[in-house]
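Re: the pair you flagged

First of the two:
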Amino acid sequence: MRESTLSTSRSDRLPGYCSKGAFLSVITVPDQYGVNELGEVPADAHLPTSFGDFRIRVFHEENTGLDHVALTLGDMIGPDPVLVRVHSECLTGDAFGSLRCDCGAQLEAAMRQIHDVGWGCIIYLRQEGRGIGLHAKIQAYNLQDHGADTLDANLLLGHPADARDYGIASEILGAIGIEKVCLLTNNPDKVVQLVQYGANIVERMPLVVGVREQNLQYLTTKIDRMGHEIEDERLNGHRQ
């Protein structure tokens, strides 16, 4: 397992920060407010969304330089397991509504389900393209356009089929006080990794949404070659 360092502040590389992470006098507001200098500002704020009023917190991972997000609704303390979606970044699906995958649909469904339950957490990890990055992901799309499946495309580029690491997600769960998790996922490897890193996964709940003609082959590959547990009659008909 890799080591990772979790921080809730950005004290390097950003102008206006001293070496110890204290925020210098670079933010000012009009004099009538009586405020001319701010101390260290936490990356922690209220975030109203179309799926409810969430709280957003950013966690900086020193080893990778990436900022990850915990989006929470309600109280994270039991006694029931907290509904959690550990979601890896997918710019094309999450932001642009791509139909090549089910990522955007899964993120929306998870937020809606957490709102309906009344409490839960989205951990948004900056692991684009199953961990290979956006540039390589679009290269993989190019290979898929020429007939490769989603797994072989990564391998042909010299990358692992799935390079994601969920150690930081386990750390974030601990940092925000989630002790028992009901995990929204179709991916058994995600469960195995999180448990190995110390997360207490007491239940797994499938999240099968966004199945379309455009992503049937993608999803079928995830089932047949990557062990994902996805049950949908449209997929079953396609695999026949």
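Second of the two:
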Amino acid sequence: MPRAFLPRSVLVAALALVAAAPFAAAQKDDYEASRRSPLPSGPASIVLYSDTNLRGTSVELTADQYRLAAVGFNDKARSVEVKGGVWLLCADANLKGNCEYIDRTVRNLGEIGLSAKISSAQVTAYDKGPRSYDIAFFAETDFRGPFLGFDYGEASLDQFRFNDTAGSVLVNRGDWLVCADNDYRGQCEFLDASVSDLGSVYLNNKISSFRKYDVRREGPWFRPVDPVYPPPGGGPGAGGVRGEETMFFPAPTYRGARIANRDGAATRFCQDQGFDEAVYKAPASVLSDVLCR
């Protein structure tokens, strides 16, 4: 083999691997989706087993049971088989205490903190449980109350009558940006895990829009700083493109952080750069594509 041929062949192989990477990633996503067991169909029915992996003594429910003690199965279930419907299983009688929505078979209830703890059950009106969605919003803290589940983002929750309603959020898959205003504006927070109390991130009863956040494509997310800041001293030209009477700032920052797109933020930024006002800004949660004059 000629000496000059080896590096060229290695380069071709490397380029082929790079080109195949997106396809491989797509295949992986398809595989992960296929691993989700299909939802059961048929009349509402759930079987509770005293041991894991659907073993041991059992009891079948086809309707609400507010006190499992009445059927001799209080705090006994360690696995459940869902044959139909979506069920709310609770640790205390009368649907109180720690509760979980179940729409599929669970072979070990310890995975959701309910092993040998179920005391009541209710068949719900939902088509799917919240864990079947990529993200689910609950009206109350601790994942309680009415919920809405999604696999994609929504620019407004008004159409679902869930605007400014969420008290907690269950993140099952992916990274998300949740925002206080429509169209992903206002105060936003990056979520890569569930939040049992949205008050901890100052968004309780405030979420109006949300979308998936692709860290690989969009880069790390940084919380915007408050736009009320002193003049940075950089003056005009700090990251902008100057025209005859204007300057364009594609991604304004202050001390290395993006600036929240609140009322008056763009004008204050332009004035700090030595201009009179902002004549345009893109609709986003942070200032972008700002034109000053």
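The chain has three domains: 45-123, 133-218, 241-292.

-B.
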